[in-house]
Amino acid sequence: MIRTLASALAISLTMLLPAAAEPVRFAVTDVEGLEALQQEFGGFQKSLREITGLDIQLIPVSSRTAAVEAMNSGQVELVLTGPAEYVIMKELSQPRIVVAWQRPDYFAQIAVLANGPIKSLDDMKGKKIAFGSVGSTSQHLGPAQALADHGLNYDKDYQSVIISRNVAAEALIRGDIAAIGLNFGHLNSIRAAFPDAGFTVLARGRDLPNDILVARKDIPEEVFTKVRDAFVKHGPDLMKSVLTGDDNKKFKGGVFLTDIKDSDYDYVRSMYRTIGVDTFNKFMD
Q: What are the protein's UniProt keywords (predicted)?
């Protein structure tokens, strides 16, 4: 009888205790490894946890494909990704948009040697132009679109080559290529790495769509609302915590944008089409 009463009391107490909150797992597609993720987003994790009261957890993913698989299998609730990746992720996972993370001065450029033979875009016809990572918004798709906007068709009016930017800068200085497609921040880093070489920008694209935080399509509505409201009501505090990461300095001077629609990324879809990609159901290799 005593044992029966004790068991009943234990059950009653268990029913009265609040259930442990389910974790809200946060991944970033361009940060590999838990240590790097904690260095970049540890401060943000703490702030978002304090503001929302949710158990925010950082989950490393090895690739953008792995991020999609984790979302589809219910292993992550939130993913921060780039605009080019979002377009593919939209097709594969149908995520919900939470908020865009503005990146000031986020645009693509075509740079040449200041004292080189290329003086106009017409001079690039038939020449080699280097781009960065395949499928990168600002190093591949954006520069290709900037050229297309000026009448130069991808891989028809010039030859595209994929080269990492410091190697591409060396190739440009040697005269092996005519130009480099890259973003504003990368051009500044090249100028710092090669101070004896001068570079000139011959074409600049429009400001690119921003990085975007998305939620798993079946995320609990209460969780989605709490996270979204955190950015609406505490944006400056959250941005301050984001900027504690070195790589996250790219967001300095930016704000969180909540009035964002999927159609705002149609420009990225047009960039894919510029390089000959008409379907968005897989990531580029």
A: Signal
The partner residues of 78 in beta bridges, in order of sequence, read 26, 215
- What are the two backbone dihedrals, phi and then psi, of residue 65, each rounded to the nearest 5 degrees? -65, -40
| Contact (Cβ atoms closer than 8 angstroms) between residue 243 and residue 252 | yes
Residues of the chain with CATH 3.40.190.10: 23-104+209-274, 107-207
Question: Contact 108/145 with Cβ under 8 angstroms?
Answer: yes
Entry pTM: 0.89
CATH code of the domain occupying 23-104+209-274: 3.40.190.10
Residue with the two structure tokens 């989950």 = 59
List the 128-131 sheet strands across, edge first. 159-162, 128-131, 179-183, 107-113, 199-207
The tens digit of pLDDT for each residue in 70-82 reads 999 999 999 999 9
Q: Is the torsion defined by CA of 251, 82, 31, 184 positive or negative?
A: negative
Q: Cα separation of 248 and 251, whole Å?
A: 6
